Structure formats: structure tokens, C-alpha cells
């Protein structure tokens, strides 16, 4: 028999149901990009969802958060209601679920997704069955589109929008060297320009002692302030 510990469930997200400690291991992972968290029977009002520290989602992706709701027909399969999303630039969110899993809406405030944790209850659902939360890795465009549709169909506060931060481009080693060389040349040119003016056979000449003076000052600046070339002009 295979050892269950040999294939541990991935830990990318955490959830924090009201009244319970944080949960960081999903109950199951039906696919490599979808994770289910099933909570024990009790009444829940809010659930916080967050990306675990040290986890970086794939480029141009975000996490869609769904809540399993009762199907309208007894024999129908499980249905999932989109609550919102999290991703780079918005690593956590709080969702109000009271009224959703009990089969009623419990007021407009319950279908708006992310809300204030301290907001007063407007109709507890009184559910006593299991609650299943689904988190799915999807394209950032898809999650943002679903959030836009959710906002347009409700009065959700615009602050719940998923705003993905643009990843900072890390320059290559070659780009760093080229930029550094350009700054050194520019520094030398600006210094030596003050010594120009002498013409020999129509060619502008800078005395060697000027270059020696620049190098002496440049070397002294590097020793006293090694990072001055790495700063942008005007810093």
C-alpha cells in the first residue's frame, strides 16, 4: 500500500474560518490547480482566504475562490458560487458566507462576496452541515472578469476589485554591466568637457592630466560612496 505521506497535498493557500484556527492543508486536490477545503459542521459567518507566505503564483495567474452551495434539485451535482479572487497585489480577502450555504441569500449583503469582518450580521444562515470552499488557479484575466461581473450584479464595494501588481523586471547581468559602463563614461565625459577647447589640426583635445584628475576623483568617490553609480541621477 502506498504511503499517503509520500504524496502530500500541496500547500499554496490558507483559510481562516471564524472561530477556527488557520487551515493550510486542503482536504483534497481534484486537479493540480484546484483545491477543496471542507470544514466541519457548524455555523460560519466569514472566511478569510490568503496566499501562504513564500508562495508565488505562476505568472499572469490568480486564485478564484468558490463556495459550494446546495443544488436547486435534489439529485443535481454540487454547485459552486464564485466569491472573489486573490493574487499578486491582493494576497488575502475576507468573504461573508452566512446565508449562502443554507439555501437563502440572507439579504443583499450576503451575495456581495468580500466584506468587512466587523460588519454586523444581517441574517445568519443557521447551517449545520459541512462547508466546502474551493480555490482554483486560473488566468488573472478570467478571475478579474468574474469579479467585474460580480460587482456589476451587486453593490460590492469597488475596493474588493482584484488589482494585480505588475512583476518587477529583474535586469540581466549583461544589462547591469552595460548600464554601469554607460554611467562611468557619462561621468567621465561630463568632467572632461570642462577641459575641452584646445584645437589641434581641427581636433578638440583634452590634456592627459585632466583624465588623470578625473580618475583620481572618480576612484575617491567610489571608495567613499560605492553605490553612487547604482543610483539614478538626482538621488
UniProtKB/TrEMBL annotation:
The transmembrane segments are none
Q: Where is the Hikeshi-like N-terminal domain?
A: 17-153
MF terms in GO:
nuclear import signal receptor activity
Spell out the InterPro entries in the cross-references.
Answer: Hikeshi-like_C (IPR048364), Hikeshi-like_N (IPR008493), OPI10 (IPR031318)
Q: Which GO terms describe its biological process?
A: protein import into nucleus
Ranges for domain Hikeshi-like C-terminal come to: 179-231
Task: Write down the Pfam families for this protein, in alphabetical order.
Answer: Hikeshi-like_C (PF21057), Hikeshi-like_N (PF05603)
What GO CC annotations are associated with the protein? cytosol; nucleus
Q: Which family does it belong to?
A: Belongs to the OPI10 family.
What name is this protein filed under? Overproducer of inositol
**Source species of the chain:** Hyphodiscus hymeniophilus
Q: What is the lineage of its organism?
A: Eukaryota, Fungi, Dikarya, Ascomycota, Pezizomycotina
Amino acid at each position: 500500500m502506498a504511503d499517503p505521506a509520500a504524496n502530500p497535498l500541496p500547500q499554496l493557500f490558507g483559510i481562516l474560518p471564524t472561530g477556527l484556527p488557520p487551515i493550510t492543508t486542503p482536504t483534497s486536490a481534484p486537479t493540480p490547480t484546484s483545491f477543496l477545503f471542507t470544514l466541519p459542521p457548524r455555523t460560519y459567518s466569514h472566511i478569510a482566504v490568503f496566499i501562504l507566505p513564500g508562495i508565488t503564483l505562476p505568472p499572469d495567474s490568480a486564485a478564484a475562490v468558490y463556495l459550494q452551495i446546495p443544488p436547486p434539485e435534489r439529485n443535481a451535482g454540487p454547485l459552486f458560487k464564485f466569491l472573489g479572487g486573490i493574487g499578486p497585489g491582493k494576497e488575502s480577502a475576507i468573504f461573508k458566507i452566512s446565508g449562502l450555504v443554507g439555501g437563502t441569500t440572507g439579504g443583499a449583503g450576503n451575495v456581495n462576496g468580500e466584506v468587512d469582518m466587523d460588519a454586523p450580521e444581517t441574517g445568519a444562515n443557521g447551517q449545520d452541515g459541512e462547508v466546502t470552499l474551493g480555490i482554483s488557479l486560473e488566468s488573472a484575466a478570467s478571475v478579474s472578469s468574474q469579479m467585474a461581473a460580480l460587482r456589476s450584479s451587486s453593490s460590492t464595494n469597488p475596493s474588493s476589485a482584484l488589482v494585480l501588481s505588475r512583476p518587477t523586471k529583474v535586469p540581466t547581468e549583461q544589462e547591469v554591466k552595460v548600464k554601469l559602463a554607460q554611467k562611468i563614461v557619462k561621468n567621465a565625459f561630463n568632467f572632461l568637457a570642462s577641459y575641452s577647447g584646445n584645437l589641434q589640426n581641427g581636433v578638440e583635445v583634452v590634456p592627459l592630466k585632466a583624465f588623470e584628475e578625473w580618475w583620481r576623483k572618480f576612484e575617491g568617490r567610489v571608495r567613499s560612496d560605492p553605490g553612487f553609480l547604482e543610483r539614478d541621477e538626482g538621488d
